[in-house]
Amino acid sequence: MARPSNRASKRIPDNVIERLPKYLRALIRMEEASKESVSSKSLGDALNYSPAQIRKDLSYFGRFGKRGRGYEVKKLKERLKSILGLGDRQWNMALVGVGKLGRAILGYGRFATQGFRIVAAFDRDPTLVSKKVGSLTIQDMGELAETIRNREIQIGIVAVPASQAQEVIAQLENAGIKAILNYAPITLAPQRPEEVKIQDVDPILQLQMMTFFMKNQGEPKK
Amino acid sequence: MARPSNRASKRIPDNVIERLPKYLRALIRMEEASKESVSSKSLGDALNYSPAQIRKDLSYFGRFGKRGRGYEVKKLKERLKSILGLGDRQWNMALVGVGKLGRAILGYGRFATQGFRIVAAFDRDPTLVSKKVGSLTIQDMGELAETIRNREIQIGIVAVPASQAQEVIAQLENAGIKAILNYAPITLAPQRPEEVKIQDVDPILQLQMMTFFMKNQGEPKK
DNA sequence: GTATGTGAAAGTGTTCACAGCG
DNA sequence: CGCTGTGAACACTTTCACATAC
To answer: Looking at strand C, which nucleotides approach a protein CB closer than 7 A?
Structure first.
């Protein structure tokens, strides 16, 4: 097993893991702006978190700061990347569902710049199979499991209609996928919830949260 | 003021508000499947929440169930829509940034089916202004404030590069917008955080959370 | 002097467990 | 008798506040 971390292994709350990518995103911007060091206070200001929150979160993983001085932007960025599993490696992804939404996902350039590569695309529609989109050839669902294993794909992207999504994640799970980015508007039940992470992408859910707080405003007319 | 709710007004946790849209989404599917009633247990199974969680969440807003029997799907769905501010009304949205991502957002049909209409689109690029995308004519940023007021737009969608996003939300805020769906990969600081809700859409953040849990798996080479 | 790292306190959110109602 | 609705117990998170190190 790898070198033991400074920190005695304490369970790390999910909330902490959720914030780390935001820290990383902010640090990358600071680095681009040639900022060399940052305090928990200034990082907190940029992200609307309290300084104590940031220090506590980071303390789960080690002591990265210098007292009286703050954190070195570049060093902290590298440590966070490594903590998040983004250090000097790529993650390979498979897209399932090459409809309008699927094509938009394929065209979203930021995945590649952040080390996430879509290396295979699948659809159950026979008229799409073997067509090309960009540099990828759409494959039949029958090839899913084999391709995932051969091409070392770790992450699945589900972009099929809700009615098909549950079956698709079963197939992805059976092929050994451990993480799924779900664009279908349905909460999916994995067969092995302990092993498989699912993240939903549904802007409608986010809009509906916000309208809760606004429901007495604007457009009163029917 | 409308009829007083049964519940004495207690502060409702954000976590509860976050779950309500998921309840609604599940209930809509159950209605489509002609399910007439549902217990907190079966709704919880579908969403990976505990039955107690669901009962407690709903109890913030009233007593919607029948003891011994559960909840009537259609009735609970309607109550949730009304709680979320989705009862019998539309929300109007303005898109800022009509690049590749902005166009994909314009083409995303689910907004309209859920009562969210994009009624105006803006870009600062003069070569895009006055071009048509679908049924919309791209407008100059100078017309932002006036259009938002005249067309009763309540929600802004930010789809500009990170470097421009902070300025764009300032303009949206100044025009009176109270909710922003932010697709730019940066955490935005509103001028009046108490008044303005912002939701980030960034699938990269979600992928990076999942890779944290997977960092010892797959593609060990390189 | 200044900002981190961290136990302890305060504050929130979730689950329990059962009374009460249909 | 089953399932809701809900105080009370429990678990978890955040903030406080200060000793510590640069």
So the answer is: 1-7, 12-17, 20-22
